[in-house]
UniProtKB/TrEMBL annotation:
Family, as annotated: Belongs to the guanylate kinase family.
Keywords tagged on the record: ATP-binding, Coiled coil, Kinase, Membrane, Nucleotide-binding, Transferase, Transmembrane, Transmembrane helix
SUPFAM superfamilies: Galactose oxidase, central domain (SSF50965), P-loop containing nucleoside triphosphate hydrolases (SSF52540)
Highest rank taxon of the organism: Eukaryota
Protein name: Guanylate kinase 1
């Protein structure tokens, strides 16, 4: 007996022997029928009986393919490994296969440094395998995992035998970000995004003309709330200033290296600012999220525009000087730029002030006249005026996930076996934020008794 599975129906072929039908037995068929049958006709009838389901299957699949523009997915006795176009997909140890439309995403092999952790097979292509551009940081080695397709655009991956705070990953296969990148690269694209458990405040983008006091305000915030905020360390091709440290104030790099990295999709945003390249790497934002901190980006208006178009879902704050003269005074007093650079920065400041205050790009506009007053306003925007507000949130409970996982979904909750009787691990996705490029934030994970799900 064989079971044929296509995407929307099942046919079971039962050979006559399975039903103990014997065509040579004259009692099986009515005498009137048999009377006109010769031995040769009986053979043809037997053949027809056997062929009929196969012909039916072919007919159904052709109709289905015409209707859905796709061929049946798999043959069940070799599930997920043999495509209808003849391609044979061999799953390696610890690999899983998740079908999304015509494509099958094989996840695993993460322990191998070279591998991207993803293989894609497209049943509508002749060769089957498609080599994708893989963006984002892939998970570190894992043995077992379980996957579930969410919203047809991302695959949820839960690592088995892991701690809950590092167990959740997403492979985005058809999100808006991935769609944009597909157009940009002209290839198939997938993007990794780690799931961050716990409260996730929105990142903060701070923009404003050079010398307005962005860095000064950010330093005050980081000094007062060191465990709450983390600075996104940008890349730049400009030369370091006297007291600037590589990896702390910026990642200082050169233009050709940075251009290559931009091409490889390493940056969340980048822009040419005052004659140099500046950019926020995806990793810079991920490092802050992984530390459980709220990310602050000090970037120019062009960069803010790019971030606004991304999935980062930040708060956008523009800092203005009280006057153009005061801006010039501050820039000169800082003493870090040559006269030529000061002139360039002041010229650019005019356009930035125009765009920053009139484009609607920014959620808040602050005038940095009196530094302390401006700082208090900034804290108010960030909900940090009372001392209670500034208290870091309680750490989320961390627990172990079992090796073998089974996932099911109820509304926005993923239920995972906990390894204990009558208890489940719940992954609540109802407050999900962000996603590639960067981390997927706002996830909640807890254990619950079966009666309280
Ligand atoms: N409210 C203020 N009143 C007077 N001086 C200020 C005020 N805010 C900042 N400054 C001073 O202005 C100078 C420029 O400030 P800062 O370096 O923070 O600017 P910035 O916006 O980060 O510039 P850039 O974009 O070039 O990095 C510094 O010397 C700082 O001490
Ligand atoms: N678009 C981006 N702009 C950035 C980034 N990092 C800094 N900047 C902006 O550049 C100017 C000049 O900075 P400076 O350190 O040379 O004075 C300033 O307006 C910054 O906000 C970035 O990653 N992307």
């Amino acid at each position: 007996m064989a079971v044929y599975v296509s995407s929307s129906f099942i046919i079971i072929i039962i050979p006559p022997s399975f039903l103990h039908l014997d065509f040579s037995n004259p009692n099986l068929l009515p005498p009137s029928f048999l009377k006109n049958f010769h031995k040769r006709d009986l053979k043809i009838f037997k053949l027809w009986w056997l062929l009929q389901p196969i012909l039916l299957l072919l007919l159904y699949t052709t109709i289905l393919a015409l209707y859905q523009g796709e061929a049946p997915a798999f043959v069940a006795d070799d599930m997920q490994t043999r495509f209808s176009n003849g391609f044979h997909l061999q799953l390696k140890d610890f690999e899983s296969a998740t079908a999304v439309g015509n494509k099958t995403y094989v996840i695993g092999g993460i322990d191998d440094q070279e591998s991207s952790g993803v293989r894609i097979f497209d049943k509508s292509t002749v060769n089957g395998e498609v080599i994708p551009t893989v963006l984002g940081t892939k998970p570190t080695a894992f043995e077992s995992h379980s996957t579930m397709l969410l919203n047809k655009d991302r695959i949820l991956i839960i690592k088995g035998n892991s701690k809950s705070n590092v167990s959740v990953w997403f492979l985005e296969v058809d999100t808006r970000f991935v769609g944009d990148q597909k157009k940009k690269f002209g290839t198939e694209v997938v993007a990794w995004s780690k799931g961050v458990i716990g409260d996730a405040e929105r990142p903060i983008v701070i923009s404003g003309p050079s010398g307005v006091g962005k860095g000064t305000l950010i330093n005050m915030l980081m000094k007062e709330f060191p465990s709450m905020f983390g600075f996104s360390v940008s890349h730049t091709t400009r030369a370091p200033r006297e007291k600037e440290e590589n990896g702390v104030h910026y990642h200082f790099t050169n233009r050709s290296v940075m251009e290559e990295e931009i091409k490889a999709g390493k940056f969340l945003e980048f822009a040419a600012v005052h004659g140099n390249l500046y950019g926020t790497s995806i990793e810079a934002v991920e490092i802050v999220a992984d530390a459980g901190k709220r990310c602050i980006l000090d970037i120019d208006v062009q960069g803010a525009r790019s971030v606004r178009a991304s999935s980062l879902e930040a708060i956008f704050i523009f800092i203005c000087p009280p006057s153009f003269e005061e801006l010039e005074k501050r820039l000169r007093a800082r003493g870090t730029e040559t006269e030529e650079q000061i002139q360039k920065r002041l010229k650019n400041a005019k356009a930035e002030l125009e765009e920053g205050t009139s484009s609607g790009l920014f959620d808040h506009i602050l005038v940095n006249n009196d530094l302390e007053a401006c700082y208090q306003q900034l804290k108010k925007i960030l909900g940090l005026n009372g001392s209670m507000d500034a208290t870091p949130k309680a750490a989320t409970e961390v627990f172990d996930l079992p090796m073998d996982l089974s996932l099911s979904k109820i509304d926005e909750k993923i239920l995972i076996n906990s390894g204990k009787a009558n208890q489940k691990i719940v992954l609540d996705l109802s407050s999900i934020k962000g996603g590639a490029p960067g981390r997927t934030r706002g996830l909640y994970m807890y254990t619950a008794d079966d009666g309280n799900l």
